[in-house]
UniProtKB/TrEMBL annotation:
Recorded GO MF terms: arogenate dehydrogenase (NADP+) activity; NAD+ binding; prephenate dehydrogenase (NAD+) activity; prephenate dehydrogenase (NADP+) activity
Domain of life from the UniProt record: Eukaryota
Keyword Oxidoreductase tagged: yes
Domain Prephenate/arogenate dehydrogenase: 9-269
Organism this protein belongs to: Arachis hypogaea
Presence of keyword Oxidoreductase: yes
Keyword annotations: Oxidoreductase
Entry-linked InterPro entries: NAD(P)-bd_dom_sf, PDH_N, Prephen_DH, TYRAAT1/2, TYRAAT2_C
Gene Ontology terms: biological process: tyrosine biosynthetic process
Designated name of the protein: Prephenate/arogenate dehydrogenase domain-containing protein
Amino acid sequence: MSSSHSQNMKIGIVGFGTFGQFLAKTIIKQGHTITATSRSDYSHLCLQMGIHFFSDMSAFLDAENDVILLCTSILSLAEVMRSMPLTCLKRPTLFVDVLSVKEHPRNLLLRTLPGELDILCTHPMFGPISGKDGWKDLTFMYDKVRIQDEAKCSRFLQIFETEGCRMVEMSCEEHDKAAARSQFITHTIGRTLGEMDIRSTPIDTKGFETLVQLKETTMKCSFDLYSGLFTHNRFAIQELENLEHALFKVKEMLVQRMKEEQGQEKTES
């Protein structure tokens, strides 16, 4: 992407927690201007990063951002959208979310935002840990839910294309169906291992080392994120039931084999 002034955008980030900060560092590096607002006071950090922090939502929306990037938690998005005095917007604006579920924000934004405001639903399939050394070959999913200004949408997507992301366009429904089987199940296995309190031993196999790493990685994520993956993805409940059924079936197979071997031992004796 060209670094010329005409290509640079003013991007407002709503929710300047860990993930918002993570995205901001690369967006700034590309020459875009960032403003931010958040429930917590990040004014000192923003000052260090060269970002204008707004504690007042009205002033933030009045700042003439080209893009509003929603980096809130899944559970707080509805409340955040209700708190936005959208009449403060001075220009047609592209609203982009980066939540880990997609049908929920799509439906909420379509209900909340007037028709002249564009909507792009996205999910960077990486974070501060997996993306700490760059975003090359990491997956970025997006759905152009309601786009009238194609040029602005393309300029935003180029942020991720420029970093070498693998760009995947798919519907929000397709995303949630796939994510319920991949991301939600991954977190569920990790959380289950956490409840079992598995720890490294002196005789770990490589497979077990992987499981310990999975537990540690998923347990670093907030329970709000995990519960959001379940509560706001309509496909998650079926995958949870599939996991329970599979575990029960495996247990049945083991018990059956044990009974067969015990019966054979009695016959031989």
